[in-house]
Write a structure and sequence with these properties.
Layout: H1 10-32, E1 54-60, H2 74-79, E2 98-102, E3 109-112, E4 117-120, H3 124-127, E5 133-140, H4 146-155, H5 165-173, E6 183-186, E7 212-213, H6 232-252, H7 257-279, H8 287-293, H9 298-315, E8 320-325, H10 340-364, E9 371-376, E10 380-381, E11 384-386, E12 393-394, E13 398-403, E14 411-413, E15 415-416, E16 423-425, E17 428-429, H11 430-440, E18 450-452, E19 455-457
Parallel strand pairs: 1-8, 1-9, 5-14, 5-17, 6-7, 6-8
Antiparallel strand pairs: 2-11, 3-4, 5-13, 9-13, 10-12, 15-16, 18-19
Helix pairs in contact: 9-10
Length: about 475
């Protein structure tokens, strides 16, 4: 060594360099949480102060009827059995069975809360929260077919291959939990909706942003537990070997972003092995909580359990939770082609008590103001009859509602015509809904973009506006 050069032995070098490893870890943690200047990725922080931190999307798959739930139409009583003047034959999905004649609702309505919100008789428990609901009666979408309508409501596009809204939210905000997925999906006990996993796909985004199906019984996440006979030591050895191989490949292929996402998924799965079972373990919940969600009654037990799990998941930092009511297709979903009274009496009863309990529970735990609850399906149903007792698919006007998370409770936005056929006042499109949800989470839908195939892609594509009237 030349003069003036500091020298130190091997032990001192290890001591000095070892202290730096902790600094590397600390800098990563600070960057991840946005506490380290500009080192955090720009797509993992809100654009402005958010009103909500989490979303619970209560998806009534199959298409709930607006005129039988939250949008009463006295004109249907007067026109029952007569041809309504707004009917369009080209709107019929079940051509030949759907007729232009009006069909009155088999359910009665009453006004609830200080706001006087009209709610059908099938939602008595939810009606007690009328002043918390922001009801949108002027929704419309672009397809009356389950497949593309589901994709549009989930991803903003009628075509498959686009990221779902849960993926966009986690791309924009990042995950609050290191041990649970940021986007969780819970299906109905009778099966998955049409399109299956495409409804919660990450599309062209990294695989780590896809929705993770959560089971309400047994192993909470499929294949997350190691196979029988694999000891923790053996699993760690396998994991370390895989990490070494991935590291070697990453050094040789620094531009391969897919590998980074795949590694992140593996690491998350490893951490979930201990956290996921605890998240779905309801043993610590009180008997009063179980009764409130309807866990002890057959008709409400499944959806009630999923609603309770949704509360537990947002408590633990899961950013976006989606629950499906209705499975497979036909009468097992809200797809009331044959008999709307029988269909909706079943599905409203399955969901009424659990949804009311979820809202009350979120309030009691101080989570309601920061958790956005969304209720609705892929479209509505015709006010005219199909086969005498049923209602067909309908995209021209239907109802959804929002609660909590910075929304204006006790309000009704927009309107359909006197028959509940066309959305005619303050119309809200699916991109409008998505833009509003993102806004409540602190995300500007025009700035939340992902570069794909040479262009900046948005959840709302080239349209969408924030519906300011829905905001508190």
């Amino acid at each position: 060594m030349g003069p003036g050069v500091n020298t130190f032995d091997r032990r001192e070098w290890l001591a000095r360099s070892g202290g730096g490893f902790g600094g590397l870890a600390l800098s990563w943690l600070l960057a991840r949480d946005g506490l380290c200047g500009e080192t955090a990725a720009p797509e993992s922080r809100p654009h402005f102060a958010p009103r909500a931190k989490n979303v619970i999307f209560l998806f009534m798959y199959g298409g709930p009827s607006q005129v039988d739930t939250f949008d009463p139409k006295p004109e249907l009583d007067r026109w029952d059995g007569r041809e309504i003047p707004v009917y369009r034959k080209e709107d019929a999905f079940m051509v030949g069975k759907t007729k232009p004649t009006a069909m009155r609702s088999p359910f009665s309505f009453a006004r609830h809360g200080e706001c006087g919100l009209d709610v059908c008789e099938l939602y008595p428990h939810l009606a007690r929260h009328a002043d918390d609901l922001c009801v949108v009666r002027s929704m419309h979408c672009d397809s009356n077919n389950h497949g593309p309508a589901l994709l549009q409501m989930q991803s903003g596009s009628l075509l498959s291959g686009h990221p779902s809204i849960g993926s966009w939210v986690n791309y924009g905000l990042g995950s609050e939990s290191d041990e649970l997925p940021g986007f969780v999906v819970m299906m109905d006990h009778q099966g998955a909706p049409v399109n299956g996993a495409l409804n919660w796909s990450n599309g062209f985004m990294p695989a780590s942003l896809q929705g993770v199906p959560l089971r309400s019984s047994g192993e909470p996440i499929a294949y997350v537990s190691p196979p029988k006979g694999i000891t923790p030591g053996r699993q760690k050895a396998q994991y370390d070997l895989l990490a070494r191989w991935n590291g070697d490949y990453a050094r040789r292929n620094p531009a391969d972003a897919e590998l980074e996402a795949r590694v992140a998924s593996y690491e998350l799965a490893y951490r979930m092995q201990s956290r996921a079972p605890e998240a779905v373990d309801l043993a610590g919940e009180t008997s009063a909580t179980r009764r409130a969600y309807g866990l002890d009654e057959k008709v409400t037990s499944h959806f009630g359990r999923n609603c309770l799990l949704a509360r537990r998941l947002v408590e633990r930092g899961v950013r976006f939770v989606q629950l499906y009511s209705g499975g497979n297709q036909g009468p097992r979903a809200w797809d009331a082609h044959d008999d709307v009274e029988k269909n909706h009496r079943l599905h409203c009863t399955e969901t009424d008590r659990p949804i009311a309990a979820l809202i009350a529970d979120l309030k009691q735990r101080g989570l309601f103001d920061e958790t956005l609850v969304v209720w609705g399906g892929e479209f509505g149903r015709t006010p005219n009859t199909e086969g005498g007792r049923g209602r067909d698919h309908h995209a021209r006007g239907f109802t959804m509602w929002l609660a909590g998370g910075g929304t204006k409770g006790g309000t009704v936005h927009g309107a359909t015509d006197e028959f509940g056929y066309h959305a005619v006042e303050d119309r809200v499109s699916v991109p409008d809904l998505h833009a509003t949800v993102l806004h409540l989470l602190g995300l500007d839908h025009e700035r939340l973009v992902y570069r794909h195939s040479g262009r900046d892609v948005r959840l709302t594509d080239v349209s969408g506006r924030v519906v300011q009237e829905l905001l508190a």
